[in-house]
Amino acid sequence: MSTVRVRFAPSPTGYLHVGGLRTALYNYLFARRNKGVFVLRIEDTDRSRYVEGAVENLIRTLRWAGLEFDEGPGKEGGAGPYIQSERIATYRTHVEMLLASGKAYYAFDTPEDLEGMRKKQEKLQVAVRDYRRAMDMPAEEVQRKLAAGTPAVVRMKMPSGETIAFEDIVRGVVEFSSDGLDDQVLLKSDGYPTYHLANVVDDHQMGITHVIRGEEWLPSTPKHLLLYRYFGWEPPRFAHLPLLLNPDRSKLSKRQGDVAVEEYRNKGFFPEALVNFVALLGWNPGDEREIFTLEELEKEFTLDRVGKSGAVFNADKLNWMNTEHLRHKPDAELLELTRPFLAGSGITDVPDSYMLDVIRLLKERVERPGEFVTTGIYFFRDPESYDEQAKKKHWKPETASRVRQVLSAIGDLASFSPGDIESAVRTTATALGIGAGTLIHPLRLTVTGVALGPGLFELMAVLGKETSLRRIEKGLSALG
RNA sequence: GGCCUUAUCGUCUAACGGUUAGGACGGAGCCCUCUCAAGGCUCAAAUACGGGUUCGAUUCCCGUUAAGGCUACCA
Predict the structure, then answer these.
(1) What does the pLDDT read at residue A1?
(2) Active site members of A
(3) Residues near A392 by beta carbon (within 8 Å), at least 6 away in sequence
(4) Strand B nucleotides within a 7 Å radius of protein CB atoms
(5) Which of A99, A246, A276, A318 has the highest Cβ tally under 10 A?
(6) What are phi and psi of A168, to 5 degrees?
(7) Which fold has domain A329-380?
(8) Fold: same for A329-380 and A382-480
């Protein structure tokens, strides 16, 4: 059996779409699982959509996600170049072959002509193929027009009355009638190929054995199959993946939330979590496990466990998955990941050991690294204000004197461990004849300004005696 | 409109003819507890509809409905 070769073929639009990430992932996983080759090919045949730096960004983002390709731009493997705009000559040659064998023809319709056909079609409610008039044009006239520089495209000739069927790996047998297909443009008037021509030529030349792509390509697959036949090539196997959906079940798009992988990266989502999450959008292991590393997915992934129906991209579950991965990460790694956020907030001179303590205390309470700094801001700065709700609930007229008492007990402490602080607080509470909570809540308010967070004693121990006492005193004067 | 695809809790999904239709996220409640989390336990929540086939349909077939995709000199 020949080596499995798959490809991810995005167009460089500026960012990597999460749907693209999933397609790339499934291709990558299929390649790894089958000891095959994962190719990255850039489909940049639309000059008008060229975006500066998009290719570099695409590669950087794929790497961030952990999806290393085996062949692609900057990583030649003998089937390159891997950027379509560098393969124009090949497409031209192949179009000539089709022209010569009568499988394709020149057409000279203007955009206005096409628009007219479109209108006519809508009105008549039947397929209109007026562009075929060019097929009846005498060869000499075609030559004359071409010589005169008349804008022309090359269209493929669709046979009539034929059924084109193929077996899709995820959907089973799919059939189309050639009568419902139109004469697809293969070569645009600017000399660039369309996707249909380029992807067939490239997949063949690059030895692609399995085309794993989104369901939006299903309707054009018969055109591709026909092209393989026209060229006399063996077609690859196809697997059309279910679409990723917006909450309203339309195709996942901008305007209804973030679709760029880069956005999720910027927000502090882990590549492991995002990959794990999209992996499960359309695939499942067959048992009840949900948390997977890339390596585990590489071992488990099979196309026969890919579903057929579209999947809504559920941000809540992604959040949850991110926290799962966060909890599995070593504190030292979290420290590295948190550094940029610290710097971003202008917080400097935080010793690693201190930051590690913060991480330890907050690890069960945050979803993303940035929150160690935002949620845990009180680890770095004295509170500027105090939560009104908490104040109302825990700061009574008699509270101040009690806090003063516990403040002096804490101030006397020689050692400032959580245990020492706890016994000082509880002893004071007992002496006052009140529950420990009656002291704990106001203390927390003075120390953090908020009513939620890690255990008070551990929190104070990490802050240190000096800071804790300063904040309690400050709180006393601010809260009365 | 035409062609194609899809259809199990709100969402992601399991069950490849026989299960009290399972799990997860989210939601509700309880426990734990100095708060918030985390954790543990419990609850609510689904086979779109109608016909077949079969001793028996979530599962197979047909239809209906609904949703989506495609219908570009974009990919």
Answers:
(1) 57
(2) 254
(3) none
(4) 1-8, 10-15, 22-26, 34-38, 67-75
(5) A276
(6) -80, 140
(7) Helicase, Ruva Protein; domain 3 (1.10.8)
(8) no
